[in-house]
């Protein structure tokens, strides 16, 4: 079965290439990371000068011209569309109530520095206590709820600077 890849060069040009096309390329590895490629009887000298396998990013020299190449397969595209990129972190500027409930305790105040997983507040919902923890390192800008108050789903609870 053929697999499709999205390829971006120099952060500008983007195109899709099929694994069947890749397998049909007439190329020979002449030494490690250096290849001789023939396309429509036209020769190309290709050298991979830098590679980051985990990020699927490469710097490639083709006939003495440098190109940065980013490769994304179908799984990468699906993961990106779902918002679960590896190594990427979304910047979260605020925390909203995930459900309606009662604020039982607030452990932070504006100006407090917090790190990932620092407990921020306890929200009671459906007779269960839910600890809301910090999703990132940062400084608390504001706390809108108060101990003993009720909140609706989606209501702003905490803002980060």
From TrEMBL:
Pfam families: Biotin_lipoyl. Keywords: Biotin. Residues 83-161 form the Lipoyl-binding domain. Signal peptide: none annotated. Transmembrane segments: none annotated. The keyword NADP does not apply. PANTHER family: OXALOACETATE DECARBOXYLASE ALPHA CHAIN (PTHR45266:SF3). This is Biotin carboxyl carrier protein. It comes from Olleya namhaensis.
